[in-house]
Automatic annotation (TrEMBL):
Homodimer. Signal peptide: none annotated. One of its GO terms (molecular function) is protein dimerization activity. SUPFAM superfamilies: Glyceraldehyde-3-phosphate dehydrogenase-like, C-terminal domain, NAD(P)-binding Rossmann-fold domains. Keywords: Amino-acid biosynthesis, Diaminopimelate biosynthesis, Lysine biosynthesis, Methionine biosynthesis, NADP, Oxidoreductase, Threonine biosynthesis. One of its GO terms (biological process) is threonine biosynthetic process. This is aspartate-semialdehyde dehydrogenase. Transmembrane segments: none annotated. Its EC number is 1.2.1.11. It comes from Rubroshorea leprosula. Residues 4-119 form the Semialdehyde dehydrogenase NAD-binding domain. InterPro entries: Asp_semialdehyde_DH (IPR012080), Asp_semialdehyde_DH_beta (IPR005986), NAD(P)-bd_dom_sf (IPR036291), Semialdehyde_DH_NAD-bd (IPR000534), Semialdhyde_DH_dimer_dom (IPR012280). It comes from the Eukaryota.
Length: 339
């Protein structure tokens, strides 16, 4: 019993995390097909004590597939996502290809599950559901419970994004550069074209006409779609920092209604998928290392924004594993909702 699964991009950082999460959550599939580019086809991947051979992704890969998890870049999703849907599969796409397409649900299960209402395995047709950008997921996991209570009017986000967001190769290069710099050697700069170790820089996404980069505009546009609120004001500055796999984000919120910090802390303590780490006496607050390889998004530094009148402003600090809740876990949770 259970759905037949396909994992597209299985050899990448998120693809590998799909397998870990499927196992950790004992996802009830009846069969699984591991798909990747021609270059990776033939590789063996061990999963649940079996050795699987990676198959080359082709148009015929989706015959008989119920759910296809995609994380192989936007061009692969654009080419093969519609083919998979045509074959009757429900695609959960981690790329940005379809996120802003009208009618494509953009889903964080703890935040807006209703957006995928009615989409189920066995409904007789395929569908496509988009996984939001990792920095959006991590931010909104914390901001949404507060938004639901006091309606966010304006959100200012500064992100400190991990290497994993740029893939496994970037993680390897960060480690390599760190060793090289410590040994007094010139750093190898293939992925980011500049030194990453002991440094930080504006996110590597292309910068648009308005001076924002694509990562920042994803935060703006995806927040409005997920909250179904085209009026909420959002601005973001996304920075790449020398951290392996968890994003950190400083979030400033301005509310329509008052929300004091104690109430905010209680709301967050009861929010699904959230861990509050907010101990002022010991200066213990969320860190990337503390959330790495974990499901929970950690929130701390919860305090009234003293630059705003009364209790209409709040500052928080959020950390979440980019590969897990920022991508693979969120996608598998969506797949669980299809059963
Ligand atoms: C990043 N959000 O972190 C992008 C890719 N997932 O670079």
């Amino acid at each position: 019993t259970g759905p037949s699964l396909a994992v597209v991009g299985v050899t990448g950082a998120v693809g590998q995390e799909f397998l870990s999460v499927l196992s950790d959550r004992d996802f009830p599939f009846r069969s699984i097909k591991l798909l990747a580019s021609k270059r990776s086809a033939g590789k063996s991947v061990s999963f649940q004590n079996h050795s699987f051979t990676v198959e080359e992704l082709t148009a015929d890969s989706f015959n008989g597939i119920d759910i296809a998890l995609f994380s192989a870049g936007g061009s692969i999703s654009k080419e093969f996502g519609p083919i998979a849907v045509e074959k009757g599969a429900i695609v959960v796409d981690n790329s940005s290809a379809f996120r802003m397409v009208e009618g494509v649900p953009l889903v964080i299960p703890e935040v807006n599950p209703d957006a995928m209402e009615g989409i189920k395995v066995g409904m007789g047709r395929g569908a496509l559901i988009a996984n939001p950008n990792c920095s959006t997921i991590i931010c909104l996991m914390a901001a949404t419970p507060l938004h639901r209570h006091a309606k966010v009017k304006r959100m200012v986000v500064s992100t400190y994004q991990a290497a994993s967001g740029a893939g496994a190769a970037a993680m390897h290069e960060l480690e390599l550069q760190t060793r090289e710099v410590l040994e007094g050697k010139p750093p190898t700069c293939n992925i980011f074209k500049q030194q990453y170790a002991f440094n930080l820089f504006s996110h590597n996404a292309p910068v648009l006409e308005n001076g924002y980069n694509e990562e920042e505009m994803k935060m703006v546009k995806e927040t409005r779609k997920i909250w179904n609120d085209m009026d909420v004001k959002v601005t973001a500055t996304c920075i790449r920092v020398p951290v392996m796999r968890a994003h950190a984000e400083s979030v400033n919120l301005q509310f329509e209604k008052p929300l004091d910090e104690d109430t905010a802390r209680e709301i967050l303590k009861n929010a699904p998928g959230i861990v509050v780490i907010d101990d002022r006496s010991s200066n213990h607050f969320p860190t990337p290392l503390e959330v790495s390889n974990k499901d929970g998004v950690a929130v701390g530094r919860i305090r009234r924004d003293l630059s705003q009148d009364g209790n209409h402003g709040l500052d928080i600090f959020v950390c979440g594993d980019q590969v897990r809740k920022g991508a693979a876990l969120n996608a598998v949770q969506i797949a669980e909702m299809l059963l």
